[in-house]
Amino acid sequence: MAEILPKTKEAFFTIHGIGPIKWEKYGQLFLETIIRYCDENKIEQKEKPIAIQGGQLEPLLEKLRDFFHRRNWGKFHSPKNLVMDLTSEIGELADLFRWLTEEQSYHLDAKTFEEVRDEIGDVFKSLVYLSYKLGIDPIEASNNKLNKMEQKYPVAASYGKNLKYTHYLQDQ
Q1: Given this model, what pLDDT does residue 75 score?
Q2: What is the 3-state secondary structure (H, E, C) of 72-106?
Q3: Residue 17 falls in which region: left (phi positive, over 0), alpha (psi -120 to 50) or beta
Q4: How many other β-carbons are positioned within 10 Å of the β-carbon of residue 19?
Q5: What are phi and psi of 87, to 5 degrees?
Q6: pLDDT number for residue 8
Q7: Under a CB-based contact definition with an 8 Å cutoff, are residues 5 and 47 in contact?
């Protein structure tokens, strides 16, 4: 709390180890104390951005936080460890497609489809939780990246081609 200095209930919940029970017991008191301390000492509150919360992903995030909290797994969820988990899950998804033909990849049998669905769920939950831990809104980040790609891959130059953007820079 001393690092983040939360000033809202939502910011309070971004702190590792804080859940509904601690909020009910101590939340308001902590917030008031932190705000007063910052005001008295002219300290700018360095609140982490609240990514995901208040949006469509919030119910999933709350389920993830509750699931991990009840198992005391927070200590394993550093950004580094979450990236390792994400990488593993992507590998498991890729493995399901490894020896399929292009055509087979469009027409999965029921068992493979269910396995792919589970792995997509694993990848997505890992990405959502990593985003939350880093204070990054994944939807906003995706939109920002798409805007950058618009610049790197002009339609006229890249239409129907699968070349890296550096190829298009050479043509300019």
Answers
A1: 85
A2: CCHHHCCHHHHHHHHHHHHHHHHHHHCCCCHHHHH
A3: left
A4: 14
A5: -60, -45
A6: 74
A7: yes
- pTM metric for this prediction: 0.67
The count of residues in the chain is 172
Domain-by-domain residue ranges, the chain? 1-50, 52-170
pLDDT reported for residue 47: 45
User: How large a percentage of the chain has pLDDT more than 70?
Assistant: 88
What's the pLDDT at 104? 97
Judge residue 23's burial from the number of C-beta atoms within 10 Å of its C-beta, 0-12 exposed, 13-18 middle, 19 or more buried: middle
- Range picked from 25-39, 40-54, 73-87 for highest mean pLDDT: 73-87
Q: Phi and psi dihedrals of 171, rounded to 5?
A: -75, -10
**Residue 91 C-beta-side C-alpha neighbours within 13 Å:** 6
pLDDT at 136 over 70: yes
Q: The dihedral of CA 20, 22, 25, 27: what is its sign?
A: negative
Tell me the CATH number for domain 52-170.
1.10.287.1080
- Asked whether 26 and 9 are in contact (CB, 8 A), the reply is no
Contact predicate 79/88, CB 8 Å: no
